[in-house]
Amino acid sequence: xxxxxxxxxxxxxxxxxxxxxxxxxxxxxxxxxxxxxxxxxxxxxxxxxxxxxxxxxxxxxxxxxxxxxxxxxxxxxxxxxxxxxxxxxxxxxxxxxxxxxxxxxxxxxxxxxxxxxxxxxxxxxxxxxxxxxxxxxxxxxxxxxxxxxxxxxxxxxxxxxxxxxxxxxxxx
Length: 172
Known about the structure:
CATH superfamily of the largest domain: TATA-Binding Protein
Shape: elongated
Number of strands: 10
Number of domains: 2
Oligomer: single chain
CATH topology of the largest domain: TATA-Binding Protein
Structural class: alpha+beta
CATH class of the largest domain: Alpha Beta
Radius of gyration: 20 Å
CATH architecture of the largest domain: 2-Layer Sandwich
Strand order of the largest sheet: 2-3-4-5-1-6-10-9-8-7
Helix content: 10-25%
Strand content: 25-35%
């Protein structure tokens, strides 16, 4: 399984004035209120969207090990202009991963032989089967390739992957 994006968010618990960051330069900071109300910070790994309320979202990480260093880098930039006292540590909101089951999958057979409440398959609308698990959702394609999303922990991805493997093995 390959993690392709981790999204996490938090709150600096203070109002932010974006004008204080203009001196960082366009390679690190960008803010255009005509196109969006948030400001962007480019990190060595990942990108931050910061709002005037102090809430932020960090995207673009590909490893859980990168979360702490990305937050420290962001916090270092912010704390040059603000005394942050009660910042919330970031919480993972979404892990997106891909996986190849390395087999051709009969999506119609999976759909008709399984619990229909947690699956959608309308090939006229979308070529993949949508599987919704408790903590994770999966787009499964005939090629065996899949996209996992909405997980907040790696074990949720692995648990859902096992359920999909069981579905595939059951119909073969």
